[in-house]
Amino acid sequence: MERIYLDHAATSPTDPRVVEKMLPYLTENFGNPSSIHSFGRESRKWLDEARSLIAEEIGALHHEIVFTSGGTEADNMAIFGSSLARKSLGRHIITTKVEHHAVLHTCQKLEQMGFAITYLDVDRNGRITSKQVEEALQDDTILVTVMYGNNEVGTLQPIAEIGELLKDHQALFHTDAVQAFGFLPIDVKDSHIDMMSVSGHKLSGPKGTGFLYVNEKVKLTQILFGGEQERKRRAGTENVPGIVGLREAVFLLKQERQEKTTLYYRFKEIIIKVLQSEGVTFEVNGSMQDSLPHILNLYFPGVSVEALLVNLDMAGIAVSSGSACTAGSLLPSHVLSAMFGEQASQLTSSIRISFGLGNTEEQIKRAAEELAKIVNRLV
Q: What is the pTM for the complete model shown?
C-alpha cells in the first residue's frame, strides 16, 4: 500500500536537490564562518551568498536578514526583541486570536511582564480587517504582529493594508510568514513590513533553519547571549550546512512557485469535486479565495476527528487535525474556536489537508476517494 503524506503544513520532506547542495558543508567545507583562515572564509562566502539571495527574494537589504533555527526563534526574536527595546515608548501590542503559538505564547509571556496585549477577533473565515487594527491602535502601541497566512485553515490576512495603515505610526509591523513564504511573492518594503519570520522545513528545506527579516532601522534587544554573530543580533555559530540548504530551497521555490501554486489549487478542486460526487456532507473552513494554495481545512458534521484520523492513517493517508505544535493532544483548535466559538461542532469534526513535495494528482484523487468512503462509513 502506497502511503500518501498530506501534512506538509506540519513539515515537508527535504528536497533531494537541497540535500545534494548541503552535503559538502557537512564534510569538506566545515569551517566556522567567524574564523579568518581559508576554511572560515569559505563558509562565510556561502553564508553571504545565501543572505543576499534571500534578501533579494523579499526586496530587503543583505544585512537585514538574520539566520535563526526556525520560525519559533524568529517569532520570539521579533516580538521579545522589539518590545523590550521599545518599552520606553509604550507597552501595548496588537495581535490576533489565530496566531501560531510561537506568537501567542510569546505575547502571553509579555503580559506577565507588564505589557498590554489586544487579541483581535476574526470572522468565520479566520480573517481580520485593517479597520480592526486601526480601531485597536493606541498612542502607546509599539508592535502589531499578524500572521501572513494561517497554518490551520490557510486564510490570508490583509498584510499590505495593515502595513499601509502603520507606516506613519510608531508601532512596528511583524508578520509570521512561515506558511506563506515561498507560495506567495512578498516584498517587505512595498508592504511596509518591519519584521518577518520564515522557517526552512516548510519549504522542503532542512529542519532547524529559518530567518528573520529585520528592517535596518529596527533595534532589537538581544535574547541570546554569546558571540557577535549575525551583526550581534543572534549569538551562536551559524548552521552553515542548514543555511546552504535553506538558500537552495528558496532558490528552487523562486523558480517553481507559479507551477506549484497552480498545482495545489488544482488539488483542492479535485478533493472538493470527489467529495461532492460521492455525496459527502462537508464544509470548507476558511476562505477558498483569500487562502494559501497548499492548505485545505474541511469540516464533516457528525464525524469524530479522532476516528477519521485513525481510519485515514490505517488507509495510509496522513493528514492532521490542526497545528503540529499541539499534535498528540487533540485539544480543540484555538483557530477554529476563534472562528466559530468554543462550543462549535467544527472543533471536533475538522481535518487539515496540506500539499507539498512529492504529491501527485493520482495521489490526491485516491486520498479523496478514500476520505469519502471513510466519512460516509463513519456518519
A: 0.95
